[in-house]
């Protein structure tokens, strides 16, 4: 494969110390061209489909892809464009909404763990366990309503440590964790939200309460930065994906999963037969029902 | 309550460093008498039932009771005797057997987390996440069959660290974790296994493969010791319960859950009415349908 493909190293965060979102341009094209982006996604998906077959056959590893980003950052579109073409038998997409009454009674990671891919599977989380350290951090009254004190010393550090430990555990269990932050500018979000209102086909996605969250942009940016700083590790890196251009986002999401699959070095199964399979083949060939 | 009840402090392990099972007598009566043990269990259960009602009403905490012990240590009997009388709507007992094909594909803690009690509930695990660091440790070929290397540096330390982190996380989420090791002698196990064979009503519990595990007693003892050393913490202690006398085991298991419930200081709900409830009461009293 040529050298220009893949995700540029500066977008792969494996040590979050001092990380700042403002250091990454939301509008960057990363040297790609829109014209060839569809072809590149198709090539990625074709290769992913081959490797996905081996992932399922060996069943020694699973992959969890976490998609996070502000409203209208392009999460749904990235799933549709970058992963259509994979065998849905081995892909499970879970879109996490606000927790319902049963989920609220359980510990935060309960619904997350229930949805976790097994070895051999690819799991895609559209929003994830990170929502708890974003929304509740920006709205500390939600924490108080649960009888907890968000101002207690170490409260957020502990919650982030729990997420980091959880991902370390998953990695040790051969579940690879890939986290993608779709990095959009507030200007671009405004344009996309206005467009949603203009298009009857997309209007259902518009929720007036999104505007209140939009006003909290700096607080969300800070919460994201602290989450990424605390949980970007070599075994569970964060990828920061410029998201002002939908086509680029989709290519990069496809590149990220492809790179993860390639990192497993899933070898092509041997063409050689075991003696048992050889005997089975001979038995079938001699079978009366031909 | 009188001073003699409760679990003696030396059986509550909150710092596992240098812990040895041989320091605790399996045959100890702990100053209790068999004659009064049934009454004491009943008293414990009555008090637990009251506190369980409040636990469900407040729903701010959940409780997980982990029962571990060699075969015939009395786990099933402890559940039946120490917890019958609680409201089953708020108690969930999960007996973990050897993992099936779906469970094996998932990470080790997946089936454990799925069964976790929510806030307001009491969960009893008859065997638990600890089985993985016991059976597989004694039978390292099971690890190799999963494509992992049990001799890799830090392999068991990492698995135990994952369990410790998991329990720390649960505690932070207001799920209290209480771990009970039913400590039986090999002599007493022999007697109980022979008795199982003699009694047609109990014979179904006898599995000839248990005898092979019995031969591995020293290896299991060591695996238990290392597990307890690595995971006994102030927030998720291990209780070592002498288990050569069934009646004592059952009292102690009841005492352990009662002590945990008491530690939550679940106050009796106030007798005072809120204005809204007062108004509701008056409306009902004036209601035409009387």
UniProtKB/TrEMBL annotation, chains A, B:
A biological process term (GO) from this entry: polyphosphate metabolic process
Keywords per UniProt: Kinase, Transferase
GO molecular function: polyphosphate kinase activity
Domain (Polyphosphate kinase-2-related) ranges: 40-264
InterPro entries the record matches: P-loop_NTPase, Polyphosphate_phosphotransfera, PPK2-rel_1, PPK2-related
Pfam family membership, one: PPK2
Keyword Ribosomal protein attributed: no
NCBIfam families according to UniProt: PPK2_rel_1
Cited PANTHER family: POLYPHOSPHATE:AMP PHOSPHOTRANSFERASE, POLYPHOSPHATE:AMP PHOSPHOTRANSFERASE-RELATED
Name of the featured protein: Polyphosphate kinase-2-related domain-containing protein
